[in-house]
Amino acid sequence: MKEPVWKPDPSRIEQSNMNNFIIFAREKFDFVGQSYESLYRWSIDNPSCFWEAMWKFSEIIASKPYKFVVDDFTKMPGALWFEGAELNFAENLLSPAGDDQTKEKIALVFYGESGDRKEISYQDLYNQVSQLVQVLRVMDVHEGDRVAAFMPNTIESVIGMLATSSLGAVWSSCSPDFGINGVFDRFNQIKPKVLIATDGYFYNGKKIDTASRVKEIGDKITSIESILVVNFLGGYENSLLVHQANAIEWEGALSRYKPRSIEFAQVSFNHPLYILYSSGTTGIPKCIVHSVGGTLIQHLKEHLLHTDLKREDTLFYFTTCGWMMWNWLVSGLAVGSTLVLYDGAPIYPGPEVLWDIAENERITVFGTSAKYLSAIEKEGFKPRERNNLSSLRTILSTGSPLSHESFDYVYRDIKEDVCLSSISGGTDIVSCFALGNPLLPVFRGELQCRGLGMAVEMFDEDGKSIFDAKGELVCTQAFPSSPVGFWNDKDDLNFKDAYFSTYDNVWAHGDYGELTEEGGVIIHGRSDSVLNPGGVRIGTAEIYRQVEKVDGVLESIAIGQQWKDDSRVVLFVRLQEGLTFDEQLVDKIKKTIRANATPRHVPSKIIEVPDIPRTLSGKIVEVAVRKVVHGEAVKNTDSLANPEALEFYRDLAELQC
Q: Is this prediction's pTM over 0.85?
């Protein structure tokens, strides 16, 4: 067995929500085990009991009870969850405002790159949501209508979502760094009635005005009847939006109404709550519809049990409103925690910015991406030497596989006594398949466990379940946060094709990974980017882990190039400024990969590139690069943060021999 890099002490285990849930399940249900493994098996073998226990343990607020938990957990898609229940998402998230012990507690703290800090209590949050609800009613927003947001990660964005869901309407958001075509490709499909938008934002030391884009969005998407403009840059009165007939400034709109009790629309468990979008780099983005109840109960499970979030905690996740982690983050309000929002570049003016916030706000759960941890390590930044992180209990990482070396970095240079939980799921399920656990040790390179109630397995090429070997990540039973479907998808044809066409009645997620003997999960990358030289399947994360050990290599991207009736591995590397790319460096990279992986992992070609294309949420786009290399078109490049980077990969002479 491997040696863990961290394990919880007995008092932490005893005081955890997961331990309390085990006691609850033993007392109130038919669970008889003690360990997480036995709890996990019970959650899979008895899904009705488990999800009912989760509903009751988390004290979900509902105006009507459910008739049954699930009609058929073997049916995918189409299983019915908590039929008959009526509830409201925002009512559950705002419930701390109705508690005398928490209503004056800080709900949200906002930090902007420009240095702004704002905070709002649960009571004031409730009041401002109430005011916006009245504004939206005047704008004729009703149950099922869509409200779209083109917004930075601010307090106003959270208020907008809560007011929208209070009415039983549907929320969908993009961050303001999206190009106009990217916004149009998303929002025009869902026909929003109201647009909530910013006049601008700050990033990497620059003030970026978005007024002209907001005007163009309003003009191009004809369903938009009203625009609420958040005066983020502070110059709205001089903005061209002042002359937009259907636009109104946020503060002025809310100031017309006094706070009052919110009449929360009571909707069914499967009523639409969010519309999220696929990356859109291989076609028009898919509009993924997530339900009120499925999102709520899944997030409560992940926050309460797997993250061990409590009312006294302060939760932070570096995200934008265009990434599902924003939706995940704001659900922390239902626990009664304080949430910290940040908008701006994560390493401007330097790598210390987020860690200074962590110290100032005494953050207990700090969430970020694997790429961020790798980047600040390469900067040589050591938070433990600069910041007091005594309050920090958990670090979460997602977006891409967390390398073994990043595990070492966290425990060496950030904090020794911290639960480092790499988590993995996606926009598709607005949650996780594998994630952290306060009861379990942390093993280098592994996600701690499969999520409760998520029947995760790995399938080989014949569709057979395998253990301790690489395969396709699948889920073999229904789960509540499975999407309602895709927007405007007749007979669910595209939805079924996306997740259920590979295996009958089994969710195929598109990740390539393995289950370990420690009970954990390793993700080796996306299965659509798996390399296949000589018929041997290789996950790209296995290569990245080795390459980025090499001094001077900032990041890399690997693809399979069709070559002489086979596929060969091509590696592109971005180097530190001033470093020379030569045969000596190429040889060092190849030797590092060969020594620590296998000869099959060694690329046939290694090429220096000035930049690596990535999505707006920071994920590298292997499929898009592969398409360019093979002369195929890449659609909807507005979904990329740096679409111009793709041009370097086109018609490379090095790939013609």
A: yes
